[in-house]
Amino acid sequence: MTEPTIRILSTRPLEQGLLDQAARAGIRIDSLSFIDTKPIRDTALTHQVQQLGSQPLTAVFTSMNAVEAVAGHLAQQPAPEDSPTRPPWRVFCIGAATRRLAEAQLGPAAGTAPSAAALADVILEHHLSEVFFFCGDRRREELPGRLTTAGVEVHEVVVYRTTQTPHTVKGPYDGIVFFSPSAVHSFFSVNSTTEKTILFAIGKTTAETIHTYVNNSVITSATPEKEGLVRQLIDYYERLKGARP
Q: What is the pTM of this model?
């Protein structure tokens, strides 16, 4: 007899390869985006980013959205043949996926870390006096707060906006996957969960946000990558199956 399929809701779209990987383990993942992110496009911001792009500075990124937005502004300025195609920046970023994108678009990363707080510690090891933090309009306080407290001047450049896009979910789901605090707020603005629902979080901050709404069990990813979180989800349910009599 075939075991019943485990039903999971992901609060952001996932690549088909990850969905197939879960399906082979008997897990069906439905994807529904609870937030929308859009780069800010205006002349003043484009000019500011392009001006910064010509200067040696320390640039900090905590999301792929910020990297893509900055790269979009820089791409609007044709570079002279005798000028470098990438900004002369020292780049710090979170996670492998953001690092790969930053290195492809902006140049080699000087440092990475699995969380905003850990990235702040990495930056502090370089004894910098100032950094430019490219972020969204709903950025968290962990990184800039830690740097400012340590005496580092943080210049924030908001390059994208996040909008909640809540949907009423018809369950039940065995588990729900969250990739950002904003998605948590969006989901719980119109939904609730049962006590048995297992919640999965991309990082500590997202997990803490979940706990402001419910006391459910929350499994937190060890890395800030969606691939790692899906793998952790699969491992969790495989262990659960193995524990059944």
A: 0.86
